[in-house]
Every structure is written in structure tokens, then in C-alpha cells.
């Protein structure tokens, strides 16, 4: 039986390129293509693919949040993150959220297929050139941020006050303060300036939610 794959990416050139690649391999069946995280969650729940290729940056809901939601409902789901970012912290964050693989969008055609086959076989796949650089980051035992904490962190890094964050997310200021406290504890960062610097240096500021 072919490996059933869903592609979630909002960039037309990437989508068409990946589609063209996968359609040339008989052992892979691309069963759906969506352009945002919310539709990805729905499609995965409805179609139960063997593998999902998930873009990190998508409108409406980013790939990390979508991955987390999918795995809450089906811990056996296998998701490979697609990204333009090779920052180790970015990659480690994706893996801590449950992704089984991480591919840069400019990898050779054969590597996309190799990643799909390896993850389908139960392995974790990191694309060529980033696996060695990842080891120190993966060895870190820091508690990961939840998707909600990441959303709050991104807004704090953009300079929003607790009140403004609460208004945007429709939560109380006290809830924002709790998230902020937990974020600082998990990252071992005490100041707002430090949180902003962390977001900038890790590349997370580019994520949409």
C-alpha cells in the first residue's frame, strides 16, 4: 500500500513543487493539500494520513499549534515539519511539540521521499546538515513552552502589555500574568527584554498564530 500523505503549506510555489515531486513516486499517495493549520487539523482528523508535511508559518494557525492539537487527539500521528529556518532552537521546539521530522524547504527531491519513508517506518528524521548541530539543543532538558505560552510570548516580544495581550486573546490579565510567569520560569529569563532577545535570537518572531 502507498504511504498516504497530507501537505499543509500556504506557499503556492512550495506546494506545487512538493506535489510534482511526490506524484512521481508510486509508493506515495498525496491525498490532500491544505493552506492553513486549522484546515490541516481537520483534514488529518478526517482522512487519517500516514504522514503529514506541515509548514511552520501559516495563516490562522501555525504549524506548531496544529501539530500539538493533532497529537492531543491522536498521539500516533506522524508529522514532518517543513521550514525555511535551520535555527537549532526552532528545530528543537518543533521536535518537543511532537514532530517526527524536520525538513528544510530547499532539500533535494530524494530527501523529501527519504524523510517520508523513514518517519513512516517509525524513525525520527532531521534533514542533512542539521542533525549534528542539533545534539546540544536536543540534550537540553528544559521544559517546553505550551502552544498558548508561545502565543503569549510572541505578543510580549512585540511590545504588547499584559492588558493588550489579554484583550487580543480574550483572556484575563491575571491569566496573561500566569503565562508570563511560567514562560520566564521555563526559559530561565527574568526580564521582558530578555524574552524579546530570546524570541529574536531563536527566530520565533516569524511565527504566525
From TrEMBL:
Where would I find the HTH luxR-type domain in this sequence?
138-203
Coiled-coil ranges from the UniProt annotation: none
For whether the record's keyword set contains S-adenosyl-L-methionine, the answer is no
Record GO biological process: phosphorelay signal transduction system; regulation of DNA-templated transcription
Q: Name one GO molecular function term.
A: DNA binding
Gene3D superfamilies, per the entry: 3.40.50.2300
Which PROSITE patterns does the UniProt entry name for this protein?
Answer: HTH_LUXR_1 (PS00622), HTH_LUXR_2 (PS50043), RESPONSE_REGULATORY (PS50110)
Which Pfam families does the record cross-reference, listed alphabetically? GerE (PF00196), Response_reg (PF00072)
Q: Which UniProt keywords apply?
A: DNA-binding, Phosphoprotein, Transcription, Transcription regulation
Keyword Phosphoprotein (UniProt): yes
4-aspartylphosphate modification, residue list: 55
Give start and end of each Response regulatory domain: 4-120
Protein name (Swiss-Prot/TrEMBL): Response regulator transcription factor
